[in-house]
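Chapter summary example.
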Amino acid sequence: MSFQTFTASSLEEAKQVMRAALGADAVILASKKRPDGKVEIRAIKKGVPLFEGEGPANFAKPAIAAKPASSLASRTRAGKEAPQRSRSVEGSGLHARVERSASSSALSRLKGDFSNKLQGNRADTADPVQKELTEKLQPQGISPQLIKALAVEARNAPGKDLPAMLEYAFSRVLRFAPLTLSKDVPIMLMGQTGAGKTSSAAKLAARAAGMGARAAFLCADIGRAGALDQMTTYAEALDTRFWPIEDPQDVSDIMRNEKPEDILILDTPGVSPFAPADIIAMEAFRDSLQAEPLLVLPASGDMHEHIDWANAFRDIGVRRCIITKFDTSRRIGAAVSAAFESNLALAHFSEAPFIADGLIDANPAYLAHRLLMKDPARIGASIA
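The structure predicted for these 384 residues follows.
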């Protein structure tokens, strides 16, 4: 591990020792008061991996195949039955809505292709603001609906240069709602496998430590290869508690027996919002912890797939999202468009793989500058 520990008579003195050793880029991961009255802090230099294997270099390593896991809804304790609830079946309810949405979107795109060819894109040339935004944002994968909404607001921007117009338009069109961490509101991170839920959980815990608070992890992602090792490493580095769990009853037992006073962060396994069994499991975890569910979305990908995911997760109570992998994505329009189409508020962005770099509070200035860059780069320190 690459973090270092510093001890002094007070927190300020410990910080001075830390900065002398690590420089101005030092980031505090955790702090505590020792029995002898001294203050101990764990810190890391910004941009340095927390442990060996973290970061982009790790992507080159061969993946370890995980053993097939049974459906989440069937992973209950011995002698306990999964709650029986009336859910839609394949081809009806949620599935039917997704299928209809996909069919409708495909038909709309087909009609749009013919219309553009027949009309010579007259709509774009008629509005210079929309034309300019289309030229800049369409290659990023921003949806036509979002571009149109941004063009309407951009005309009213106080500043008339493109970054200022786009920043103003984002502030009017999208909702920005960073988390206020509190022990009274547990956090539950949801999303597809590989979206960055576990690292986002660690970054939230590091944020809590920076506030002088403590966070604790509950990890339900125990079936994925290496997941427990990763979460255990984070918990040790952040000096926080960690419980591996298998089902919602485990959560209820921890709340009843342990009575944790920490900020609780539940890391869930990758699920499909189109599978009724997975939906039942996610709702049961949410209810057992009385948590706010947040969707974790990777920045890039298929726009229509992202939109379907965001809409499906919104149906089960998600109202905010964290967008990750800005550092490995050239085009970030898929996740941004999904947030717009599903009316999800943007909570945080992640543009670095290292826990010490933390999460950026979502804001319109960051989006505007990131989308207008020719070559993607980390800009959080100067924009956030």
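To summarize the output: The longest strand covers residues 26-33.
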